[in-house]
C-alpha cells in the first residue's frame, strides 16, 4: 500500500507538471509521509442484514519541507480520506472489492497532497 500511495503521488506531480520530481539530494523541497491508519469496515447492510457496502479509510501524516530555506511549508498529521464501495451490484454501480476502494482513497490522498503543495508555490 505504501508503494501504491508513493507512486500515485509521483504520478500526480508528473501529470500536473508544475513541479519536477527529482531525487532527494537535488530537491528544493522534500515531501515525507507515512500511513498512520487503515480501516475497511462495513458501512451499510441489505434488507437481509448482510453487509453490502463498505468504507475504506486511510489516514496519513505528511510534511513538505523547503530544503533551501530549511523550513516547513505545510504539514498534516491526520490527513484522512475515505471511499465507499458496494460488494454487490446496485443500480448504477457494479460490485467492487476492497482493493478498488483502496485505489480510490489513494487517488484522493494524492490529489489532496498535490493541491496543497502546488498552492504553496
Order of helices and strands: HEEEH
CATH class: Alpha Beta
Spatially, the strands of the biggest sheet line up as 1-2-3
Please state the structural category.
alpha+beta
Coarse shape:
elongated
Q: How many domain modules?
A: 1
Radius of gyration: 17 Å
CATH architectural arrangement: 2-Layer Sandwich
Most strands sheet: 3 strands, antiparallel
What is the name of the CATH topology?
Answer: Double Stranded RNA Binding Domain
Percent range for helical residues? 25-40%
| Strand content range | 35-45%
Oligomer: single chain
Give the overall pLDDT as a whole number: 94
CATH superfamily: Lipoprotein like domain
Total helical segments: 2
User: For the terminal residues, how far apart are their CA atoms?
Assistant: 28 Å
Say how many strands there are: 3
Report what the structure shows.
The structure is a single chain. The chain is of the alpha+beta class. Helix content is about 30%, strand content about 40%. Strands 1-2-3 form a three-stranded antiparallel beta sheet, covered by helices on one side. β2 and β3 form a beta hairpin. The longest helix is centred in the C-terminal third of the chain and has 22 residues. The two termini are about 30 Å apart.
Amino acid at each position: 500500500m505504501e508503494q501504491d500511495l508513493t507512486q500515485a503521488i509521483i504520478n500526480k506531480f508528473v501529470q500536473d507538471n508544475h513541479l519536477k520530481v527529482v531525487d532527494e539530494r537535488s530537491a528544493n523541497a522534500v515531501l515525507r509521509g507515512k500511513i498512520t491508519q487503515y480501516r475497511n469496515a462495513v458501512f451499510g447492510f441489505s434488507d437481509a442484514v448482510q453487509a453490502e457496502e463498505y468504507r475504506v479509510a486511510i489516514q496519513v501524516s505528511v510534511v513538505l519541507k523547503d530544503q533551501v530555506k530549511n523550513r516547513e511549508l505545510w504539514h498534516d498529521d491526520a490527513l484522512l480520506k475515505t471511499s465507499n464501495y458496494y460488494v454487490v451490484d446496485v443500480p448504477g454501480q457494479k460490485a467492487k472489492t476492497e482493493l478498488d476502494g483502496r485505489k480510490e482513497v489513494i487517488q484522493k490522498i494524492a490529489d489532496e497532497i498535490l493541491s496543497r503543495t502546488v498552492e504553496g508555490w
